[in-house]
Amino acid sequence: MIYPIIVYGCPVLREETKEITSDYPNIKQLAEDMFATMYNAEGIGLAAPQIGLSIRMFVIDLEVLAEDDPQFKGFKKVFINPQIVEYGEETETCDEGCLSLPGISESVKRPTKIRIQYLDEDMQPHDEVYEKYKARVIQHEYDHLEGKVFIDRISPIRRQMNRGKLTSMVNGKIRCRYRIKTVK
Asked: For residue 29, what are the domain limits?
């Protein structure tokens, strides 16, 4: 099933997400649906709040980048109840975009290294360290679980420069190449 992507302005993007228990229904099917929704929108990551679910889960697939960088080959993961338990001190600024904020891309400063604990789709625990781009994508999706979007991490002047686009999103006046759901 391909879900519509929730657009900036919808309250679910700002909600505190709830942990998933082992009896959560059809978790593997949900993961498959999230991947299908993400692929349909030509994304590389998608968090549950972006499809209207206020739960602690996101998916990432960087395979599309493997042609340019072999380290991304086979990097397809489901993160359930993730907790970033450590951030590195070194930071890097790179452009980011988001399926929930179509048409906006801004430079975001993030740590280049993280340690994260999470469950996979089989509810098996993992404790892993990621660096550089993998760490960036994970942090971006993790922010969604914390009720944040990447524009929360840019300067006030850059946010102001995007005000017109953000207002259009909130007012439901936006066109997109994939199915979306707005507040209006």
From this structure: 5-181
